[in-house]
Structure formats: C-alpha cells, structure tokens
C-alpha cells in the first residue's frame, strides 16, 4: 500500500475514513463508490489526481476507479459551481410545466444547461426524477430539495443563495441538511 | 377512513426517532421472533401472509426467501433496495425519512429468516435526508442492541451498512444493484443463477424493496390472516400510492391494495383540476403503460392491472389531463429510458435512441409519413429482445400509447404540429 503521508488531494483524515469504509465490505473494490463520494465532498469534483489517490489508498487498479467515476452521473469529473442546480424535467414535473422553468433559469443565470456562471457560483443541470413528484416541479441544489417551484420562487431562491455567497464564508454544502420542503 | 399501518407514525413530531417507534410498539416483532420463531417458521408466516414484493415485480416474498440454501456454512446477504428511481415514485423516501426503524426492523427479521449476518441498504444518492435519517436510526438501533453482535441477548448477529448509489436508474434492477455494491458499473447480469442462490460476492442473497421490508414487523405482530384480509387475497396488504401530475391533491396515500384506481384518483386525490378532464393515467411509474380514462375502474393490484395490459409497478400514479399531449409525455418517457439504458444490449441501447429521434421530430411538427409504423416496428424489435426489464418496459409503454392514442399521434404526422404546444 502507498505511503500514508497527506497530499494536496488526500488529507490524513480522508485516508483514515477510507480505511474505515474498506472494513464494511469483504472486497476492497466495493469501497470505491463511497470513497469517491467522500473525495467529491472534499474537492467539489473528481480531478484525475484524486482518482489516482483513491486507487492508491484502496490498493485497486486505477481503471476500476475511472470506470465508476465515469459511469455514475453523480460523480463530476469536471469542476462544478458552488451551487449545483439540478432541475427535474421528468414526467410529473413536466406536466406541471417544469419545461418553462429551464429557460427561466438559463436566462436568470446567463448560462445554458450544463454550464457554469463566470463567477463559479452556479452550475445548471437537468436531471431525471428526484423522487419528489407529489410536490412537483422540483429542483435540488447541492443537497437541498426545493419543491412546488414557480418562476417567482426560483428568483427568490437564487437571490437568497447569492446573498449567502457574498455574506457568509462557509459553503451551503457544509451547512444544509436537505430539509427544506420534506414532502408531507 | 382506513387504518394507517405503514404511515401510522408519520405525523408524530419525531417520527424518525427510535423512542417514537418503540412507544408505538416498534421492535416488539423482533423480540417475539427471536423468542418464539425458528427461521423456517418465520418464512412460513410470511408465505402465509401472501406478501408480495413492492419493488415492482410483485414476487411472493416468503417464496423468495425459501430459495435461499439452508447450509449454515454458507455466508448470506440481504440487500434492501432503496434505489427508488422510477419516475412518479416517492414512497420509499417517505418511509426512510419518516419511519426508518420500520424498515430496519423488517431487515433484521428478514436477515434472521435467511441467516444473513451482513446487510446493505442500497439507496439512491440524491436522497440525502434519507441517508442521514438511516445512519442516525442505525446508530440508535446499535445502541439498543437491536443490531450488532448477539442482538438483544440472543445468538443472532447482524450488521447493516448504507451504500449510496450515484445516479444510475438501472441500479434498481436487482442484479445491477449487486454489481454496483461490488464496485462495478451497474449493468444487469444473466439469471439464472438467481441472486437467492448466487448473488452478492457470489453468495446467496435476498433483495427486497423498502416497503416490502416495512410490512414485515406488522405481519409478525398482527398475523398473516390479518394481513391477507386487507385487500384482495392474492395481493393483500396496506399500500403506499404516489399521486402526481394533473390532480388537485397530489401526494402520498396509504390505502389497501386493490382499491379502484378511480377512487384513488377522484376521491382521495381530488380528481382533475378545475375545468379539466382526465385523459390518461400511468398507474405504476413510467415503466407501466398508461391506460385511458375509460379504464379507471381497474383495481390497484397485480392481477387486475395485468389484465388491463399494464402493471402496479411502483404504484407511482401519474395523471394526465385533456390539456396535455400524449406524444409529449411519451417522448419524455422514452428519452428517460434511452438516457438510463445501461448500453449492454443493442435493442434497448440503439432502439430507444432511434425512437427518441422520431418522437422528438413528431412533437416538433416535423413528423414524416411512415414514422408511426417505424415506431411500431421499433417497439416490436425491443420488446421481448431486451436483456432486462428496462428495455421491455419502455417498449411496452410506448406500444400501448401508440395503440390507445393513435389519433393524437396521427394528428402530429398529418398536421405537422402539436395541437397542445
Ligand atoms: C430497470 C429496473 C429498475 C428497478 N428499480 C427498482 C427500484 O428502484 N426499487 C426497487 O425496489 N425495485 C426496483 N426494481 C425491481 C428489482 O429488480 C427487484 O425486483 C426488487 O427490488 C425486489 O424486491 P421486492 O421483491 O421486495 O419487490 C427495478 C427493476 C428494473 C428492471
Ligand atoms: S435492456 Fe437496456 S438497461 Fe437492460 S441490459 Fe439491455 S441495455 Fe441495459
Ligand atoms: S418527476 Fe420530477 S421529481 Fe419525480
């Protein structure tokens, strides 16, 4: 196994946590997904250097790690903005006119779907059903669900996030708990 | 007012905490089973209850457990399928957020019945609050010795771990789910061997849905006969229905299995929105073919829906009214399946992306003569020739939409426009 010293891409803590994760499974390969989540939480995305480090700590072939990082859509191999907006466009949301929310978001942010704003604050993606169809239309920003959306509600949310970004120094990731609008 | 079973604690302020669960009688089933039941007797009880899987296919739960070899030397696994990605579905999320101990107790019961000492919860990655609630609930259960070594003083042990998915719908399919836990791409595997014989890490494995597992403590506490008497004898039990789309009161409803779809949509969910009429309903998530309004008297159980050429699936009921376009809905559904196709087999991978091109063309007013026949041809080619139920389900749904709402499709071709958009 590789040396234990911390690098720019892998802190001592992460190494330790990954070693704990390994114990949950009879095979180390199973620990790849949870380790990548951990790394993504830390770095925001998964650059090659991180993938190599993860392979090193797990002591598995690099290709196994690449395979997972590229197959699963929740792993970002490219940088994303501080707030990653994921708008659901699946049927239940579509029926309640999520279609008009996408152009609205694009206009407000000045980017097209898949893009990131110049200030690095927002990335906009469309996603499949978020499992919140009873309160459609829905989007998820980082970990938090926002439900029963309208264009006005979206404007309000974007303004709040911008205010938060200019005022606070902590990111929303480390604070939110996904609790906004738990469905009844 | 029907009695709530699965959602009976959901309104309590701290419904996700172990104290609330125990006060309402939680973990009583576990104590009873460890005291009074041999694993075989528990399997028999579940068989007698006629509980059928809530993950989509409706397989008899006790029968599935019975396939697991009894050899004590073999390591066995239990996987809870919490991947809930079927568009229109949000019931498992409700259980995990509101009352996770119900499912955890169910997992301990199942693990005891099949002799598993390790279990994984495969949960979709987006469900961050559910993950938090589960992690906290597992910790509470460990603290009370409902989990870990020698559960409440017995010689039974179980560890449960949460494994997060990362945004691949196909991982809800049980063999793809196992591949994913093993750290590979989520692609279905050939059956047989069935997971009950050779599953996770090549060991006997049971995969059950969240809601299926949540039913178990209630069956132990109240008996197989009580359960069988809720709804139709062959598909009985309490059931969570997810109502979405064009209804006045969308949301989650707990009602008996076998309730008429019309009653569910019109009485409970308030029916169509003001000034609108219902045109079609998808009864079980987008993998289930839509049915026209005229078929709404069908009952929500496995047999009745199969007879109506659709399925109960995930009980994600999506209502479409007369102000929306079936071609648009069908296009979005096939786009979804094409996007989520794992790429392993040609009919699904190529056939669906080809169907998407044609459907988009129709919806954009650029339909051509022969397009509908081409879609029919694609459905016939995909259905029955796909490696797993994703491809088959997609083609089945599209074929039914083309049959039932042929006129709408023809309009798009002939007039080269969408009458709705
Ligand atoms: C494409 C596809 C997706 C599926 N997604 C899910 C899912 O998200 N959750 C689930 O419980 N079952 C899902 N299933 C069904 C599972 O393969 C399996 O039958 C089920 O988890 C068994 O549990 P049960 O017997 O308790 O229903 C899916 C099947 C297919 C073919
Ligand atoms: S039918 Fe589709 S999802 Fe299933 S194995 Fe084939 S390509 Fe993969
Ligand atoms: S369709 Fe948008 S949350 Fe389910």
Give an account of the 3D structure.
The complex is a heterodimer of chains A (184) and B (421). Chain A is of the alpha+beta class and 184 residues long. Chain A has helices at 12-22, 32-43, 48-58, 62-71, 91-95, 101-109, 151-167; strands at residues 83-88, 122-127, 139-141, 144-146. A four-stranded mixed sheet of chain A has the order 2-1-3-4, covered by helices on one side. In chain A, helix 1 (12-22) packs antiparallel against helix 2 (32-43), helix 2 (32-43) packs across helix 3 and helix 3 (48-58) packs across helix 4 (62-71). Chain B has 421 residues and is α/β, with parallel strands linked by helices. Chain B is built from 17 helices and nine strands. Chain B has helices at residues 18-23, 28-36, 39-49, 61-66, 91-98, 100-114, 128-143, 174-181, 210-222, 224-228, 261-268, 302-307, 326-340, 346-363, 371-382, 389-404, 406-415, and strands at residues 77-82, 118-123, 159-164, 205-209, 238-245, 251-256, 278-282, 291-292, 316-321. In chain B, a hairpin with an 8-residue loop joins strand 7 and strand 8 (291-292). In chain B, helix 3 (39-49) packs across helix 6 (100-114), helix 5 crosses helix 7 and helix 13 runs antiparallel to helix 16. Chain B is globular, with a radius of gyration of 22 Å. The interface between A and B is large, with 48 and 55 residues.
Short description:
Chain A is of the alpha+beta class and 184 residues long. Chain A has helices at residues 12-22, 32-43, 48-58, 62-71, 91-95, 101-109, 151-167; strands at residues 83-88, 122-127, 139-141, 144-146. In chain A, a hairpin with a 2-residue loop joins strand 3 and strand 4.
